[in-house]
Amino acid sequence: MSMLVPSAREMVRTLASAYPDTDVCVRALPWRCRCCERITPAFGLVHVDGCVQPVYIVDAASGLGLEYARDLLEIVGHPLVRAIKVRTLRSGRSTFTTGCVYCDTLIEPGPVRARLIEIMIDNTVEDMPLMLRLPRPELEMHLLNQSIPAMFC
Asked: Is residue 57 packed enough to be buried (19+ CB in 10 Å), middle (13-18) or exposed (0-12)?
């Protein structure tokens, strides 16, 4: 926000306080690690509680959505926060990714997204394990939805 002029910063503060808090959910898939073969959470979705239409669900398999999920886990001191970190990919690009909680092997987001699409088609998002439900300013989810292209539409 430091790049904004003071009046614009005040507008953002006003907007943030104008929206009520809403419960935000972080969900993960039980995933078999390709290295140690143990079941570990693969973070996948962030959504407003009770709002599971595809257009409102945020992809949290990697990148900004996963970074937001990590921020939420960090706020409450959740032990799974250590599984999400910045990693350098083979392409040389750095991004937030999930690793196995037992051996830290990278969980590839591509196969996770493929499974998430199946879950969206089957309309079974609420059957996924809930890692966290936390009240947050509604504006956060509006901003997140605008920042990440809708992959499930």
From this structure: buried
Q: Which two tokens stand for residue 138?
A: 């509604």
pTM over 0.90: no
Phi, psi (deg, nearest 5) at residue 122: -80, -5
Integer Cα distance of 56 and 153 in angstroms: 9
In Å, the largest CA–CA distance within the chain is 54
Tokens 């350098």 — which residue?
A: 88
What's the pLDDT band for 152 if we cut at 50, 70, 90? low
Sign of CA dihedral 117, 115, 89, 133: positive
Beta bridge partners of 133: 25
